[in-house]
Amino acid sequence: MKNTLIVFALALGFVFAGSTNAQTPVVFAKGTTEKTMTITVKPKDMNTYALSVKSGQVINVSVSGDISISKTEEFPVIGLNLTNGVEDVDQWQDGEAYLSVLTGTTKKYVISINNSDRKRARTFKITFKVTDDIADYAGGIKTDQ
C-alpha cells in the first residue's frame, strides 16, 4: 500500500510539473519592453506564454500573419486569451489579433494562443509589449458612474 501511494504521488507530481513547464517564458532583452517572435501553432492546439509583471502595468499582445478567417465561422482561426486573469482585479480586452491587459497584481500572467483550424498549423508573428502607461490599455478605464 505504501509503495502504491508513493508511485501515485510521483505520477501526480510529474503531471503538474509537465503542465507548469508547458508555458514558454517571455523574456525581454535588457533595456527593452517589447519582444516579437515567429511561432507556429499546430492544428487544434494551443501554445502558452508567461510574462512576469508588476501591478498597474499594461500587457499588449498582437499577432500578424497567418490568422485568416475560418471558412465555417466569421472569426479568425487564431485566438488570444488571458488564462489566469482575475475578475475585479485585472482588466482585459481582446479582439481580432490582439489582447490588452491592465494588471491588477504583481504575478506571472499566462497568455494562450489557440489555433482552431482542424487541418493545418499556422505560423505568424506575435508581439508582446509591457508598459507602465495606463493609456496603452486598449479596454479603456472603468469609472464608477
Entry keywords:
single chain, 145 residues, mainly beta, four-stranded mixed sheet, 43% strand
Gist of the model:
With 145 residues, this protein is mainly beta.
* Beta strand %: 35-45%
The number of domains: 1
Summarize model confidence as the mean pLDDT: 82
Number of contiguous helices? 1
CATH architecture annotation name: Sandwich
Sheet of most strands: 5 strands, antiparallel
Give the helices and strands as they follow along the chain.
Answer: HEEEEEEEEE
Q: Can you tell me the overall shape?
A: globular
Account of the protein in words:
The protein has 145 residues and is mostly beta strands. The protein has a single domain (23-136), classed as Jelly Rolls (Sandwich). 14% of the residues lie in helices and 43% in strands. The protein is built from 1 helix and 9 strands. It has one helix at residues 2-21, and strands spanning 23-25, 34-41, 45-53, 58-65, 78-82, 91-95, 98-102, 107-115, 122-131. The strands form 2 sheets. Strands 2-9-4-7-6 form a 5-stranded antiparallel beta sheet, with no helix packed on it. Strands 1-3-8-5 form a 4-stranded mixed beta sheet. A hairpin with a 2-residue loop joins strand 6 (91-95) and strand 7 (98-102). The longest helix has 20 residues, at 2-21. The chain starts with a helix and ends in a 14-residue tail after the last strand.
